User: Fold this.
Amino acid sequence: MNRSILPCRFLSTRSFPIRIAAAVAVLLPVLPSLRAAPPDAPPADTTIITALTPRQARELAGLKTRSLVLDGVTDLDADTAAAIAAFPGVALHLNGLRSLDPNTAAALATFPGLRLQLDGLKELDTETAAALARFAGASLHLDGLERLDDDAATALAACPCLRLHVGRIAGRTALDMPDAPALVRLLATALAPPDGRVAFPKLAKLSPGAAAAVVAIDSWDGSLPGITAFEAADSVAVAAALATRKGPLMLPNLKKISPKTLSALIEKEDVQIPRIDMLELIPEPDGSPTEDFVVPERFRERQDRQDR
Assistant:
C-alpha cells in the first residue's frame, strides 16, 4: 500500500530569537492593561472619585503631590476622613462634601497641611463647628456657608488658623437677624487683613445687637459705606448703638433717615455723615409721630469746619 509522504519543513533554530523578540515587542504596550488592578484601588484621576473607602483613602494619602483634589466626594465617614487627613501635602480639597458630623470634622481638622477647603458646606451645627475649628493650618475655606447659629459662629471664630474664609457670609449686605452678633464676631476673625483693620464695605442693614457687636471690634475701621438709609423699625436703637463707638464713625453714603434716628446718631458729635441739609428726612419707621428736627448748633458748626 502506497502512502504519500508529505514533505516536512524544519525551522531553523536560528529564527527563534527573532520571532520571540517580535512577539515581545507586540505585547509590551498592552501588558499594563493585562495586569489586574487591585479591586479597591482608586483611579489615577482623583477628581472623578465620588466615594472613598478607608483603604483607598490611605492609598491616596500616600501620593507625592502638593494638593489632593477630591471635589467629587460627597460623603465621608470618620475613619475615611482620618485616613485622608494623613495626606502630607500642602492642600486638601473636599469641596463636594455637603454635610459633616462632629467625628468626621474632628478627623479632617488633623490635616497637617496649610489649606483645608470645604466650600460645599452650607451649614454647620455647634459641635461640628467646634471640631472643625481645631484645624491649625494657614487657611480654612468655608466659602459656601449660608447659615450659622450663634453658638456655631462663636465656636468657629475660635479657629487658630491664620485665615478663615467665609465668603458667602462675608458678602451679606444685611446682618439684622437674631444670630447677627455672633456672625459679626466671626467676620471680625475672617475679614481681618494683614494690617489688622477690619472693614464692612457691603453692610447695609444691622440689628441693634449686630451694631453693638460691630462697634465693640477694636480693629474695625469705623466706616459703613454700604448704609444708605435707616428704614427699619429698630433704626433708633441701631443708631444709638453705633453712636457708642469709641473712635471714628463714618457713614459717607447716608441718604435717608428719620428725625429721631438722626438725633440718636449725632449723639456722637464726631460722627461723619453728609451735610444734614443734603439728607432726606423720612417718617419714623416704627410708626411713631414724626417731629421736626432742629440741627444742634455745635453739630452744624462742626460740619461747617469739615467743609472748609
User: Anything to note?
Assistant: Confidence is low (pLDDT under 50) at residues 3-11, 30-37. The first strand starts at residue 67 and ends at 69.
